[in-house]
Amino acid sequence: QVQVVESGGGLVQAGDSLRLSCAASGGTFRTYTMGWFRQAPGKEREFVSALHWGSGSTDYTDSVKGRFATSRDNAKNTVYLQMNSLKPEDTAVYYCAAKKFGALAKNTLSYDYWGQGTQVIVSS
């Protein structure tokens, strides 16, 4: 059983940057594909990014391409989401998710383990 815990959220202004972290425990972290999702009030949870466990390849939703970047430090069992040029529409609760030996995937059903989320609020 893998546990993931997000951190790093907060209140920022449009144009600012934030780095979210997701610390994993209870499994062999390097074997997990890691995803980031977000959920804004009144909306469904949506895909943000994914990082493949083996190849290191990444995928992003179109609205964050060029602004967000995901990376991992296997020695620290942590995955990051660097968010630059934040916009008010990026406001949401951000969730980290994990899938053992998983392919890059954009749907929530593809991931087995989820964190509790960290709130990001971007003011205009």
Q: Could you give the topology of this structure?
A:
Elements: E1 3-7, E2 10-13, E3 18-25, E4 32-39, E5 46-51, E6 58-60, E7 68-73, E8 78-83, E9 92-100, E10 113-114, E11 118-123
N/C terminus separation: 40 Å
- Oligomerization: single chain
Low-confidence stretches: none
Average predicted confidence as pLDDT: 96
Radius of gyration: 13 Å
**Strand portion:** over 45%
**Percent helix range:** under 10%
Number of helices: 0
Query: What is the 3D form?
Result: globular
Strand tally: 11
- What sequence of helices (H) and strands (E) makes up the elements? EEEEEEEEEEE
Reported for the largest beta sheet, the result is: 7 strands, mixed
Structural class label: mainly beta
Describe the structure.
The protein is 0% helix and 51% strand. With 124 residues, the protein is mostly beta strands. The N and C termini lie far apart (40 Å). The model has no long low-confidence stretch (mean pLDDT 96).
Structural features:
mainly beta, seven-stranded mixed β-sheet, 11 strands, globular
